[in-house]
Design brief:
This protein has 2 helices and 29 strands. With 383 residues, it is mainly beta. Strands 7, 8, 10, 11 and 12 form a 5-stranded antiparallel beta sheet that branches. Strands 16, 17, 18, 20 and 22 form a 5-stranded antiparallel beta sheet that branches.
Length: 383
């Protein structure tokens, strides 16, 4: 028989070939490519399985020529890798604002067959309905905190999937059931202290009034929460919440005390709240400079028969100016700034003692003066 002169006419497939008996499960009249799920079960009525099941399958093809005179059998092993599981949830539910933190929880449970290849890689796949490029966010931990943006004037609808990818050489990946999230548009807010001059010394304590701007007032919010931060810590007395209808609802009178010896930028945060409306918080920075100390001590007294010399030492060195004054001027002065030596001639016997006040007022590099003048009283006795 000259089989090579005949064309193949019948293509029969056995998707669970046992290596001995060929069981035709699908018959085709040509060699057109096709897809087929493999699950290891016998195919009934040439109906394809609904999905594949991981495993190794021997798939056989029997070719029969058009006259049926010749047949040939080919088989190969097809490995169906296990696919990972992908499941996640979100909190809170419902629509959100652009600044709202959303917590996603990975609820995927992987089979030993998948984990045998190594750890599964997870990524959050994010798409929206305004044409932004698809973004992929690594999801290595059980939970992921995320905010979704909306810089438009309307709602933005996001579709999120958890993509789970098995380790090589498996490399199979699967997408979870999508989660849809609507992000509402947000209104901006603002405030200012029109009297605040950033180029002024702004010495502690700094007082003033913050006024909410007109656009924010027009939102007719339910409440304002004000917080003044020193670094990340609210200063004493804050946060403060004002509800709509309260006196001076749209303003905050404040006093900021800087008790350090360095200039400090205080962050002022305004959080407007209105039910059903997204509003972006506003913040401003106010620099408050410290005041120096005017405290000083009597470091030394030298008594002589005809003179009395005193040495005073300022407690805070390194200031720009030390203004020493005495209610009775000394006869000799040696002023080194933070230290001063002063000498008085004693009055003649019987002329009476000298009752003197020593005063110090200091100025630092921020052009702030000490908040009080320190006074020290002493007596220069007569001879």
């Amino acid at each position: 028989m000259l089989c090579y002169l005949e064309l193949s006419h019948l293509y029969e497939w056995d998707f669970s070939y046992d290596g001995v008996t060929f069981n035709p499960e699908l018959s085709l009249g040509d060699n057109t490519d096709f897809n087929w799920f493999l699950d290891g079960n016998p195919v009934i009525g040439e109906v394809e399985p609904s999905t594949s099941v991981a495993g190794d399958y021997d798939v056989a093809l029997r070719l029969t020529t058009e006259l049926g005179l010749c047949t040939d059998l080919f088989f190969t092993t097809v490995i169906v890798q296990p696919i990972p599981d992908s499941d996640f949830t979100r909190s809170p539910a419902g629509s959100v604002c652009p600044d709202d933190l959303i917590t996603f929880t990975n609820n995927s449970v992987q089979s030993p067959a998948v984990l045998a290849f190594g750890p599964v890689d997870y990524q959050l796949v994010i798409d929206d309905d305004i044409g932004s490029p698809t973004s992929f966010v690594p999801f290595p931990n059980p939970t992921l905190d995320l905010t979704l943006d909306n810089s438009t004037a309307g709602d933005v609808n996001y579709t999120l999937n958890l993509q789970a990818t098995a380790a090589a050489p498996n490399n199979c990946f699967v997408l979870s059931t999508p989660i849809n999230i609507t992000v509402n548009p947000a209104f901006s807010s603002g405030f200012e202290d029109i009297a605040f001059d950033p180029f002024a010394p702004n010495c502690s304590p700094l007082t003033g009034t913050f006024d909410v701007d007109g656009a924010t007032q027009a939102l007719d919010v339910d409440s304002y929460t004000w917080t003044i931060f020193d670094a990340t810590i609210p200063v004493t007395g804050f946060p403060q919440t004002k509800n709509n209808g309260a006196p001076n609802f749209h303003e905050l009178s404040y006093q900021i005390d800087n008790n350090s010896q360095t200039g400090t930028n205080y962050r002022v945060l305004l959080e407007p709240v209105k039910a059903g409306l997204c509003i972006v918080d506003a913040e401003e920075f106010v620099r408050v400079n410290p005041v120096p100390s005017s405290d000083f001590t009597l470091a030394e007294i030298t008594d002589e028969c005809e003179t009395k010399m005193l040495t005073f030492q300022a407690n805070q060195p390194g200031l720009v100016d030390y203004d020493w004054t005495f209610t009775i001027p000394p006869d000799i002065t040696d002023n080194d700034g933070d230290q001063i030596r002063v000498l008085w001639n004693r009055p003649d016997q019987g002329a009476g003692d000298l009752n003197i006040d020593a005063n110090l007022n200091s100025t630092n590099a921020f052009d702030c003066q000490s908040s009080s003048v320190t006074t020290f009283n002493f007596i220069v006795e007569s001879q």
